[in-house]
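Sharing a chain and its predicted structure for anyone who wants a worked example. Both blocks are below, sequence first, tokens second.
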Amino acid sequence: MFSKINAILDAVDGFVWGLPLIILILATGIFLTVRLRGVQFKQLKFAIKSIFRKNEDSEDGELSSFKALCTALSATVGTGNIVGVATAIALGGPGALFWMWLAALLGMATKYAECLLAIHYREEKEDGHILGGPFYTCEKGVGAKFPVLGKLLAVLFAVFGTMVGLFGIGTFSQVNSITNGIQTFARTAAGELSMITVGGLGEYSVVVVVSSIVLALFVALVIIGGLKRISSVAGIIVPFMAAVYVIFALFGLLCNCSRILEALEAVFQGAFGFKAAAGGAVGAMIVAMQKGIARGIFSNEAGLGSAPIAASAAKVEHAVQQGIISMTGTFFDTIVICSMTGLSIVIGILIKPEIAQLTGFDMTNAAFQALLPRIPPVVVSFILMVSLVLFAFTTILCWDYYSERCIEYLSKGNMTPVKIYRWLYIAAVFVGPYMTVSAVWTIADIVNGLMAIPNIISLLILSGVIVKLTKDFFSGKRVYTIGYDFNNDKVSAE
């Protein structure tokens, strides 16, 4: 019975995260890049400068643009940057890294568009807090043209977003990564670990049990404080953890700078199957493309619709202001951080080919140890473990916020379900290390992919609004009404 259910779920997962969805997201990135005339390339310098801009008193919103970006980055900069990159290279070879880069460059246009629309269609509630995201983009934007379709897409996105937070990205996968990383380090440092029995769930090391308790407590202390506490924690941890990891990775790459060109050669050859056996080049290229793009999307979440929920709370006068800042999140996540991990792993494989047989955290850990042989392995493992813990911890915090906003939309502002969900979320964090049912992981992967479909549909339908807002802003017409419906030439109902 269970084997049949797992087989069905695996088939659905393979379809959802198969070529159709990947092509849809990639094609949307190409379409928006063309329609916006390469805004992610032409305005990147302006976008990076805008991150630290001073907010004006007249701007509406809850968070500064910088904190809104850090909140979104806290969700995207997670286990995918350390574990996901390794998985992509293990399954698709070094060429997967090239396709991650391509997905990110095109995804920057998608991230810009979805965050811009989140600001444009957001609502300010009676108590002053802001609610926005793809659910309002679908309901108000798409709904202006197609009322039934707009409402359906909005509800589907909110339902999938809630499920992803509770069962997927937000809890189980992150908590498992944290406890596994801590346990790997503990074994490297101390060898054998003491084991204890946890109810009827089986035997687990003391490290895993203590970690789960401490992690649940820290998560509770932060998320019970709401958005402002989450954003404050993210505003401190995200820049710090990203800087530490990038400096560490750069040090490893500089110590092996003579191999960087060789690594890049392996990436480009692998991307197009040049090293595959005769007749297998196309197949090798497709595998590298599929794994690289899928992991890239999973890492930076461009097109999934999660980042717009955080972006909608930003203090801005014009939607383009936050859209242009939000797209830098994809740049930092994939082009910077994932590239550091990817190149380190490829060079590690060149030094020790047997590393290619590993996967996940073990592959990344072994690669960095190969790059830095003069540093004790326990020190390398400790730095990676701390990076992984901080990356995953902030992802847990941000996905609670995303899910709460989805529930608030579904409950039409009734905060009781939100408060109940908050405690369910903390409980899910606590039991995360003991969840080994494969069906749970598969369902999480499915709803994660399904989030993208209503979001992408809304971007395609509302591309005219995106182009209009962009043209007005960069041509100097920077005063506009949030919620203005360019399709029907009237202000949308607030």
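Comments welcome. The first strand starts at residue 123 and ends at 124.
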